[in-house]
Amino acid sequence: MTLKMILAFLVSLFVAVLIGSALVPFLRKIKAGQEIREDGPTWHKSKAGTPTMGGIIFICGVTAACLAVGWTEMLRGEFGHIFVLLFALIFGAIGFLDDYEKLKKKQNLGLKAKQKFLLQLVVAIAFVFLMRKFGYATPNLYIPFWNITVPIPEVVYFIFAAFIIVGCVNAVNLTDGVDGLATGTTLPVMLCYAVVAFRWGQEFLSLGIFASGMFGALMGFLLYNFNPAKVFMGDTGSLFLGGAVCGMAFAMDMPLVLIPLGIIYIAETLSDIIQVLYFKISHGKRIFKMAPLHHHLEMGGWTGKKWSEKELFALFTGISLLFAILSFIGVAGRYVM
């Protein structure tokens, strides 16, 4: 089990670095440049033209790991890693359509919000149905730290799952606003999944392969995405990443672990929601200098200190790592006697 998970990490890392070395120059050549938000921080305008859709790099990495290292698991009838991969790929495809629309229109607006929401909702319900059919997910809600499960009605479970999945995917997407931020924040999340799968044993090997592969692929992508970024992941990457994060939580039948494990995603999303609501209620006033949270800190919110992109990367990744450790503690004993 240890060897396969290490191998998944190495394969995905190698493939991601290799794909990146060819893809980044290609995207630059075809002028697949990112359009920057007009209402964003002024210093972000210098990033205009940086290639987008770089998420293809880690998508290729984790796909290679799942197929190459996870092949024997498939022969044994274990498809957990493939289900999560396909789920994330469909979200990645939605993101690709969004990126394509942005590039075609030459502005930071892609698919309409309703279009994306409906597509994501359909995919979420289909995935949960698949997880239930093959026995990965149950309508018994596992409570981390307390190590108990609470049965809930099937219909309620499906509504809950669809809401969590769509919310989680878009929260990860929202976090992708600073060089390397979504990448760094998600590395501890995938590491947590990998260690939990290892802790729980052989039955969870296929999911461990996916998590290890995702960790390696993100490490390879970070070489190109760390500040100053040579490429952005785009919605292609961030929606795939969101699908991978929540897909693993449901495949391991512990969706509530997303509360501590996805603390950065939650904080980013809440800051955006609070900003919009307060703006409407107060008729134009703002709580944050700019939402989501990382832009607020960039602009010197609260303390007056203007956080650099590298400092934000270190801060958010560090917080994510701390909560990943707490999340592991909360679920580690579930299947261990």
Terminus-to-terminus distance: 19 Å
Overall mean pLDDT:
91
Alpha-beta classification: mainly alpha
Strand content bin: under 5%
Q: Tally the beta strands.
A: 2
By DSSP (H or I, 4+ residues per run), the number of helices equals: 13
Placed side by side, the strands forming the largest sheet appear as: 1-2
Helix content range: 55-70%
Give me the Rg, rounded: 19 Å
> Which regions contain 5 or more consecutive residues with pLDDT less than 50?
none
List SSEs in N-to-C order: HHHHHEEHHHHHHHH
Largest sheet descriptor? 2 strands, antiparallel
Morphology call: globular
Describe this structure in words.
There is one protein chain. The protein has 337 residues and is mainly α. Helix content is 67%, strand content 2%. The mean pLDDT is 91. The protein has 13 helices and 2 strands, in the order H-H-H-H-H-E-E-H-H-H-H-H-H-H-H. Strand 1 and strand 2 form a beta hairpin. Strands 1-2 form a two-stranded antiparallel ribbon.
Topology (elements, then pairings):
Elements: H1 2-29, H2 56-68, H3 71-75, H4 80-105, H5 113-133, E1 140-143, E2 148-151, H6 154-175, H7 181-200, H8 205-225, H9 234-251, H10 258-261, H11 263-281, H12 293-298, H13 309-331
Antiparallel strand pairs: 1-2
Key terms:
2 strands, about 325 residues, globular, 13 helices, mainly alpha
Q: In brief, what are we looking at here?
A:
With 337 residues, the protein is mainly alpha-helical. The chain has helices at 2-29, 56-68, 71-75, 80-105, 113-133, 154-175, 181-200, 205-225, 234-251, 258-261, 263-281, 293-298, 309-331, and strands spanning 140-143, 148-151.
